[in-house]
Design goal:
Radius of gyration: 28 Å
Shape: elongated
Strand order of the largest sheet: 4-5-6-7-8-9-10-11
Number of strands: 11
Distance between the termini: 66 Å
Number of helices: 9
Order of helices and strands: HHHHHEEEHHHHEEEEEEEE
Length: 336
């Protein structure tokens, strides 16, 4: 009897020493579900090509999953990336209308023979997505590469290789030839009209996304408030090392949304931990698959079967890209 009493006392003592609210660690499957919930919410607030019902379903499901497994609510920014990107397109298009008007004024005020002299004096610089012009006496302004391709019949993609002088001269000759034609001013006027139509479309898109953003936040809030955390899952520990994507060479350090902003230039890189990605440069979007190697190389796999490899490095909240030989790192993107 004494032995049984001793055992009971020891058991009671042992139990009393155990933490009352020990944090639960999520299983491998549960970690995967939580990860996928975060990934889906990220897609829903970033990607433009997504049905509204599907978008809201991803938001609701993600909010419920995070709450059920004791995870902190997903931080939806005050302005979702989808809206931010579209607003940047609006600003760029506005500037293109203004620049078209300046170009029209600079050339229209001159007689034909004087117009040729003006074009000859122009400095043309090809950089990124913009073609920059400088006419003596006027400030620098730019047109998009799409505009140059369509209005000035210059193949920007195949004819321009990094803004070399030969490319600028080729574009200048195209510009000079078209300046000699009587329909030059007419084309510039049509260009402005086209941009205004585009601006109106983007404005309507912004209005739609603004309302969509409210729906997204409302959907998340309702789903989160009406969902209970599973018993014993309050504050459960999420372990990234359990995510399957880790074994597929997807460096978790670069998973997320990265942005770079300059005047008239907006870059957004979105890396998902399932190996999918999206890069937007102003209005142009590329979607592809990606993977990394241990020596900090990242390879992109495009839908047409082509691939491209370069180096990368992450320093704090900054992401740098460089050549395959780990040099020539450019301006960093900032994690959102």
């Amino acid at each position: 009897m004494k032995k049984w009493n001793l055992i009971i006392i020891l058991c009671i003592t042992f139990l009393s020493l155990q933490p009352v609210n020990a944090q639960r660690r999520l299983s491998q499957a549960e970690n995967q579900w939580v990860y996928e919930a975060k990934r889906d919410i990220e897609k829903a607030i970033t990607q433009s090509e997504m049905n509204e019902n599907v978008r809201l379903q991803l938001i609701e499901k993600g909010a419920r999953t995070l709450k059920q497994y004791g995870q902190a609510p997903y931080h939806i920014p005050s302005k979702i990336p989808y809206l931010e990107i579209t607003e940047s397109r609006y600003v760029v298009t506005q500037s293109q209308i203004f620049d078209s008007q300046k170009l029209y004024s600079a050339l229209n005020i001159e007689l034909l023979n004087q117009r040729v002299k003006v074009v000859n004096s122009m400095q043309i610089d090809l950089a990124g997505e913009q073609i920059k012009f400088l006419i003596p006496g006027n400030t620098v302004y730019s047109l998009s590469s799409d505009v140059v391709s369509s209005v000035f019949t210059f193949d920007y993609v195949n004819g321009a290789s990094g803004g070399q002088r030969s490319d600028a001269n080729e574009l200048k000759n195209k510009f000079l030839n078209i300046a000699k034609k009587q329909d030059f001013i007419t084309k510039l006027m049509q260009l402005e009209k086209d941009h205004r139509v585009k601006l109106e479309k983007i404005h309507k898109e912004i209005e739609y996304i603004t309302e969509l953003e409210k729906k997204i936040k409302q959907t998340y809030d309702i789903a989160e408030r009406t969902t209970n955390t599973f018993k014993e899952y309050e504050g459960a520990i999420f372990d990234e090392s359990q995510i399957n994507a880790k074994s597929h060479n997807y460096d978790q350090a670069i998973v997320g949304i990265w942005t770079y902003n300059a005047i008239g230039f907006k870059v957004v890189h979105v890396y998902n931990a399932d190996g999918t990605a999206m890069i937007r440069v102003n209005t142009k979007v590329n979607e592809f698959k990606w993977e990394t190697s241990p020596n900090n190389l990242i390879t992109y796999y495009y839908p047409d079967g082509k691939d491209y490899t370069m180096s990368y490095k992450v320093e704090g909240n900054k992401l740098f890209y460089g050549s395959k030989n780990h040099n020539g790192y450019g301006y960093p993107l900032t994690k959102q």
